[in-house]
Amino acid sequence: MIKLTRWATALLAVIVLAPNALPSKAFAEDQDVIDYRQHIMKALDAQTAAVGQILSFSIPEDQLPSHLETIAITAKTALKSFEQNVPGGEALPAVWENWGDFTARMNDFVDRMEKAAEHAKTGGREAIMGEIVLALSCKSCHDIYREKNSKQFSCAGLSPKGHGLSPLE
């Protein structure tokens, strides 16, 4: 009887306490999703900064196609990282409320980066100067889908803070 009582008490404790543990688990998973998304977006920012240095003639252009291809691949990954509807971080709920528009913008970004990479392979820096500012129009998405704050990392390499090629921030 005592063994049964201990077992029943332990079972009752699990039943009562388990629901309280679930929200923290869900929060941890949500925070992981948000953290992952932010890492991907920071990777995009770092690659954009490298492109900015190349386009400002401070770094040789031999790696320009690779950086542009990396941006395209990372942008695909970024879109995938938003598929889970987990608002938070700097992403506004508008991302998921306007999923079709958000997806179209990200896919357009990927396409533009892939084309820019191809043009850079054949014509170098000069071949993409006109198209790159439009292709890296990060602000057009960030204005709609990103929380405004003072520590933004958007197109750093192509902003007044970066190399002054375009007022994108």
Short précis:
This protein is an all-alpha fold and 169 residues long. It has five helices and no strands.
Q: Would you identify the CATH H-level superfamily?
A: Cytochrome c/b562
Proportion of residues in β-strands: under 5%
* SSE succession: HHHHH
Oligomer designation: single chain
Low-confidence stretches: 18-24, 159-169
**What class would the helix/strand composition place it in?**
mainly alpha
The proportion of residues forming helix, as a percent range, comes to: over 70%
The CATH C-level class name:
Mainly Alpha
Helical stretch count? 5
What's the alpha carbon Rg, rounded to whole Å? Answer: 22 Å
Major β-sheet annotation:
none
The overall number of domains is 1
Q: Report the end-to-end length measured between terminal Cα atoms.
A: 71 Å
Mean pLDDT: 81
Give a count of the beta strands, DSSP E runs of length 2 or more: 0
- Provide the CATH topology: Four Helix Bundle (Hemerythrin (Met), subunit A)
Shape call? elongated
